[in-house]
Amino acid sequence: PADMPGEVLGHRILVVCHQLKLELDVEPLFASMALYDAKEKKKISENFYFNLNSECTRQMLSAHIPHADLSTLSRSAVFDIHNPTPDIFLVVRVEKVLQGDVNECVEPYIKDDKNREKVRAGAQAACSRLGKYRMPLAWSCVSLMNILSGSNSLEREHSDTLAPGSNTNSL
Q1: In degrees to the nearest 10, what's the CA dihedral of 24, 106, 43, 50?
Q2: Domain-by-domain residue ranges, the chain?
Q3: DSSP 68-125
Q4: Dihedral of alpha carbons 116, 121, 122, 126, sign
Q5: How far is CA 1 from the centre of its chain?
Q6: Mind listing the pLDDT tens digit for each residue in 34-65?
Q7: 5, 70, 83, 97: which has the highest count of C-beta atoms within 10 A?
C-alpha cells in the first residue's frame, strides 16, 4: 500500500516586526517580506504584509482606507523552510504612496532634509489624491543562515547583547 500523505516538516521561523523606523517619518509606509532562494532564483514563500504605521499616520489614508481590519494589523509571521541552505534570504520591501519620480521621492530620506514640513505637505497631498496606489521606496535582505544562527539583525543600532546561538532577531 501507498504511504499516508503527511506534512514534511523542516524548520519554522517566527518573524516578529517590532518597528520600522526611518529618520524622516512623514508618511505611511507599507512593508512586506518573503523568503527567496538566490541559487534557484525563485521566491519560496508567500508574501507577508505588515503595517507598522502609527494611528496618526494611518489617518492620512482615511479617504481610501476607512478602517483597518484586524487581519491587516498582524506583526508576526511564521515561515516554513523545508531545506535550509545559505542561499535563502528574507527580503523586506518597503513601499510608499505613489508620488512621482522615485529619485525625487527618495531624496528626502537619503539627505538631511531641512524642508520636513514641505515634504510632509507633499506626502499628505499624495495620500489624499493617490492613497490607494503604491511605489517602491526601499528593500533589504538578510541571510536565513544568519537569522537561524542569531548573528544578524535588520536594526541599524543592533548591539551584540544576544546570547550566542540565540534565534532572536530584530526587524
Answers
A1: 30
A2: 11-149
A3: --GGGG--EEEEEESS--TTEEEEEEEEEE--S-HHHHHHHHHTT-S-HHHHHHHHHH
A4: positive
A5: 46
A6: 999 999 999 999 999 998 988 888 889 988 87
A7: 97
